[in-house]
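ingest -> validate -> predict -> emit
validate: passed (alphabet ok, no gaps, 142 aa)
predict: started
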Amino acid sequence: MSKINESSYRQLIGLWKTSGEVRLGTTTVPLNGTDSYELILDGSCILHKANVSIGSERSETFEIITTLPEGKIKMQYANSKGESGVMIGNLADKRFTIDGDGIKFDGQIDDGCTVIVGNWYLQSNNNDWDQFIVLKLEKILA
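emit:
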């Protein structure tokens, strides 16, 4: 396992303002809050904390990010809704993708590494991918 501070994922480190929209059935509700990414365990992992409001509901997520040999990352998460799991991320040429069990993210990081925009998708019963979150993260503290 290589150290995060020696990889391209280091650009995630910092405090981010999080905004967007979440689709709940036929309606959309605003998503607002913060995400933080910090190096831990002597630079071998990133601790990601998300603290957001989805409409009037608060949601917290904690995630440990480690590197994998092929340049990807393993993302182990747990949230305040009692959900937990593992996802695999990849950051290449400013495109940031995440794949999990029935969930995926497709986003872009700007050239200055100060804005991430993208969409989260859920897999439906017929195996189609339905967009359910439009997301924007703006770095406010490196």
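The two ends are 24 Å apart (CA to CA).
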